[in-house]
Amino acid sequence: MSETIFTKIINKEIPADILYEDEISLAFKDINPQAPMHFLVIPKKAIATINDIERQDCEVVGHLSWVAAKILKEHGLAEQGYRTVMNCNEYGGQTVYHIHLHVLAGKPLGWPPYSAKLKIE
Ligand code: 5GP
User: How far apart are CA 119 and CA 113, in angstroms?
Assistant: First the structure.
C-alpha cells in the first residue's frame, strides 16, 4: 500500500502530540478533535482498511483497544465512558488509509451518527 501521513508520524518525520508508543502501536491526539479528548491509536504495521486485516493481524488490532483503555484510565476518563470508532472506506468516512482507532471521551456522545452527504457518481 502507499504511504500515508500516519507513516510519517510513526517515523517522526512530522510532529504529533504522542500519548503512548510501544513496538506495536502509537497513540496521538487527533489534529481536529471532535471531543474534549480525541486521540487515534494506530498499528505501526501499515494496514489500509479493516477489510485488509488478516488473521495474523488480530492480536495487533486487539492491542489498539487495550492501548485506548490504558490511556483513558491514566487520564481519569475511562469510568465515565467513551467511544471507539474505526471508519472504513468511503461510506464509513475514512480519509486516512492506515487503520486507526478513534477514541472520543470527555463528554456525553450522541447515537446514532448522522448520515453524511456523499457525492456518488
Ligand atoms: P478518518 O476520517 O480516516 O476516520 O480519520 C482520520 C483522522 O486523522 C481525522 O480525524 C483527522 O483529523 C486526523 N488527521 C489527519 N491528518 C492528521 C495529522 O497530520 N495529524 C493528526 N494528529 N491527525 C490527523
Answer: 19
100 catalytic residue (yes or no): yes
Phi, psi (degrees; rounded to nearest 5) at 74: -65, -25
Residue 29 gets which letter from DSSP? E
Model confidence pTM above 0.90: yes
pLDDT (tens digit per residue) in 78-121 = 999 999 999 999 999 999 999 999 999 999 999 988 888 876 65
CATH number for the domain that contains residue 12: 3.30.428.10
How far is the centre of ligand 1, averaged over its atoms, from the C-alpha of 4 (Å)? Answer: 11
> Is 110 among the domain residues?
no
Would you say the CB of residue 31 lies under 6 angstroms from ligand 1? yes
The active-site residue, picked from 38, 75, 100, 102, is 100
- The rounded distance, in Å, linking the Cα atoms of 70 and 22 is 13
- Residue 69 lies inside a defined structural domain of this protein: yes
